[in-house]
Amino acid sequence: MTQAEHTYTKFQATALVVLQLFIGWHFLYEGFAKLLNPHWTAAGYLADSQWWFSGLFVRLAASPAALTVVDFLNVWGLVAIGAGLMLGLLTRYAAMAGIALLLLYYVAAPPFAGYVYGAPTEGSYLVVNKILIETAALMVLVAFPTRGVFGLDRLVAAWRGKSEAQSLKQATA
Question: Which residue segment(s) compose the domain that 96 sits in?
Answer without folding.
Answer: 3-172
